[in-house]
Task: structure prediction
Amino acid sequence: MAFRGDDISINTFIGSGSAVSGNLKIAGFVTIHGDLDGDLEATGKVIVSEDARIRGNITAKSAIIGGVVEGNVTAPDFVQLFQTASVVGDISTRKLVLEDGVLFHGHCISLSDEEEYQEARSKLLDRVAIASSTALLHSSDEAL
Result:
């Protein structure tokens, strides 16, 4: 029997002790217990266990994080950070839940209204693009 809406079946599982290098595109729900060096894009929920480390951006329907993420997290439905979580990057969501003890360094957009969320997200993406292009200009100037 297929579930409708929030599918609870895990489509992809990266186990503890595993290391993946490269970008991943996952159809559905993914659980990470190992290391990922690359961006993760999923159509469903992403769970990052407390022993997992991701160096890259996460884009998913929702994200539950207990491990380390060095990158931006975009999950329109919700983002939940457990006390063991460390996120160095920007978070964009409609609902954010943080437990005590979370390490978070970055910008955060958490707006429940869809129109306000999309407008704020667009502004953040513009700022990130401008900052990135400015950093590239400065690094090329230094190389000369």
